[in-house]
Amino acid sequence: MSTALPTHAQVVIIGGGIVGCSTAYHLTKAGFKDVLVLERKELGSGTTFAAAGLLAQLRQNREMSNLAKYALELYSRLEEETGVATGFVRTGAIGVCQTEDRRREWLRGAQMAKAFGIEMHEISLKEAEDLVPLMNTSDLKSAFYLPGDGQVDPVGATQSLAKGAKMGGATIVENCRVTGIVTKNGVVKGVSTEMGDVSCEYLVNCAGMWGRQIGKMTGTSLPLHAAEHLHAITVPIEGLKKHFPTVRDFDGYTYFKEESGGILLGGFEPIAKPYGMKGIPANWKFTELAEDWDLLEIFMECGFERFPALEEAQIRHLQVSAESFTPDNAFMVGEVPGVKNLFVGCGMNSVGIASSAGVGRALSQWIENGSPEEQLWPVDVRRYFPWQQNSRYLHDRVVESVGILYEHHYPNRQRTTARPVICSPLHDRLKDNGACFSMIAGWERADWFAPAGVKPVHEYSWSKPNWFDYQKEEHKAVRNGVGMYDLTSMGKLIVQGRDAEAVLQRLCTNDIAGPIGTSTYTPMVNDKGGFELDVTVTRTAEDSYFIVTAAGTTVRDCDYIRRRIPADSICTVTDVTHGYAMLAVMGPKSRDLLSALTDADLSNEAFPYGTAQEIDLAYARPLALRMSYVGELGWELYIPSNFALTVFDAIMEEGKKHGLKLVGMQAVNSLRLETGYRHWESDITPDDTPYEAGLGFGVKIDKGEFIGRNALEKQKGAVLPKKMVMFTLDENKDVRLWGNEPVYRNGEFVDTLTSGGYGFEIDCPVGMGYLVNKEGVTREWMEQGSYELMVEGRLYPAKLHLRSPYDPKNERTKM
């Protein structure tokens, strides 16, 4: 490796682990020649060396799976290109199930795998034993086989990537610690190191366990905390098959692979051991921590059951090291908010080897083109908030984060550690009324309400969770009476200044230049026409707009707008999320209830749909928006936070006369889904356009220039290759849809559902997703098809809906 430090590089990468070397490799493949990798010690000496080297393909969605699939492709050919051995072997993998619930999870995984182009199928226990001769299956319910999975030598693969990067022109400097980052006017300009300063145009933080420390140099929130992580390797075991398929026993928290004739076993503890509360030692290099046999015990218990030969096998090495984990057990990738040209690829959560190839490629695409080839929101660094750097929060959460990978992945599964963080001003009122809380972006939100005598505790299921009947009552109350929910967690931004209108007109596809008091639904799209934001914009003054967005995307959306304000514009963006509570009063009786509390005229003529007014209510003057995300008449009330309690109490008291029912997020979701309302991230992403999503009414091509206009103008009125539709399972009401279920047309797979749930007013399972056809999705083509949805390995006949099955003309919101 080079020992001379250049004074300039086009791209500087901090960290020479497998992700940093992959990023350098892919940048050179993209044509970047002036790439510099700075490694504090030696390549792979931080976390990479301690990995087991497993390459698993199936992830939580198509995009994440594609990242992992690419690793198999790259590492199978990299040695031939570079001459440096990667140790790649395509061993296959077997997932075993101790319980019927786990089998159901794996059945859903198998249907997703098929949809994502990954071979995976259920096999008999005898077939599993034939593939892994010493494995005991007597206690198992089922097994699933993925023949395409593999393994790789982590250090060998890192060295091979480094060699490939250098062959492409990259420079790698070891034993060079970064001490600072230089920015100017919010743009990266260079780094300071122990060996001198380097100016650059782009900077990539691939520093692994040190990523959070590097992030602090620019005030960037990179929530990472290390935990002890281990695996054990036995002496050779007679009769063990060389390179047997990796065995993953999620119920036992343990995985097994062959290593030098013995068994390597490790896993993901449900209660992990945090490490590095006072920082990672400066001399960390291929460091192993003190042996902790107690930490190994849970894996050995599973090991003795799964491989009885382990009881007589001697452990020749117990490797205990450390690795960093994020609060949601998903890694971080992308351009960080607030600093231009500063990228990150770290916090790999023990899937760094399997994800390294895809992450490196995605980062190179991001730097070269301004975005990755596929949307990566589940791992986008902009999902994190500044407060999540808090060290106590990270310490307490990492105890749980490690085990997330192997836990039961039930729908709506909630984290239990590091809570509560953010509470609505109404939290205690909701709790007193029986709220069972869920959490998003740190916010505690009422998920559903337990009646008297019922504990407000989540009991998860793939079939009928314990809140199902209570969700139904809340859902029906909104449809037929009046309900109220607290969505204080919604992101709230104020865009103001002399040029606010011009800035937003350039960003929004809809026309937001209406009179004061106009509320407008609008996408903001990229140059390809894909959704970047999905928001409501309300004009509150000639030079001021109030924007409402989702709780989890507030950082991303605020950063997106700020980056696109021209330097010479007089326009600012302020996040006022915590300054306002939000109560939504929805249902056909909402007008009667609210009219009893205000002297404002709430009639259609005086207060039409899509408008906003400040009204007197209790002793407050909330901003009332006539909008709805649940498909019914209603108002969203944005109340200054210190007035929220009195407004809540007044509505609750008057609500007794109108049958008011408190409503949680589960019902809000089923209400919006039944009405066909889209959700950013699941139903609409940067890879989907408004016309494909059936939201073309939010595009005004003729209003003038805006980002993405050219792309959308070509789509308007054209036959598109995909189109959002809805499905119901009218004949199979006990089947549960949760999203990602494959859709079949005339027996052929077309795509997967983006959202799924139960429509309590239409009384059947309901889902939405895209129909895809390279020749074009016409109405005739859609209606000529016969449709089925695959759920847990079975196909069920589905009814196609070109509009929502409930209130298809969306008339009830305008009653």
TrEMBL record:
Pfam families: DAO, FAO_M, GCV_T, GCV_T_C. Signal peptide: none annotated. Residues 426-703 form the GCVT N-terminal domain. Residues 11-366 form the FAD dependent oxidoreductase domain. Residues 369-424 form the FAD dependent oxidoreductase central domain. Belongs to the GcvT family. This is 4-methylaminobutanoate oxidase (Formaldehyde-forming).
